[in-house]
Amino acid sequence: QLGTTQTSIHVNDVILPPWAKSPKDFLKKNRRALESEYCTKTLPRWIDLIFGAKSRGIRAKESMNLFHSSAYLCPTDLESLPTSQERIQAELQATEFGIVPDLLFCEEHPSKNDLELLDSFVEASIGRGHHCEDETTTTNIITTMNEEQDTSTQKEQWEILQTPKTPATREESLEAKQQQSS
Question: Locate the BEACH domain: which residues (predicted)?
Answer without folding.
Answer: 1-112
